[in-house]
Amino acid sequence: MSDTVFTTPADAEAAFYDALARADLETMMSVWSADDEVVCVHPNGPRIVGLAAVRELWRQIFASGMRLSVRTSHTVVSETLVLAVHNVLEEVAEAGSEPAGPPIVATNVYARGGNGWRMVMHHASPTPNLMDIQVQGTPRVVH
Length: 143
Prior knowledge:
globular; six-stranded mixed β-sheet
């Protein structure tokens, strides 16, 4: 477990995306809870459960050599004293490039413990083309 204390869920989330951009496994894992019931799902990927399996997943991704740039937007936050859920749109591209497709919708769940806030779940899914859906406000109504 890392000595880093994330005092807010937003701090943990910033560290998560920073570690992702830098392909930094140790920083990435410092964001995750030491609880063995953590869950990670990448777009069109299987559900990965357990800290060792999540670490191995990120190790493989970072070992590929590809560096990613991720911009988040349209953040929706639900937070209590001990649990925070952040739902974001991720625009993912290879570093130095523009995103090639529609954004990914991601839900990041953080739990507050004795060492601050830690990620317990990251679930990312592909989205349809944004031109076909309404991102903000109420669902589109066709008359």
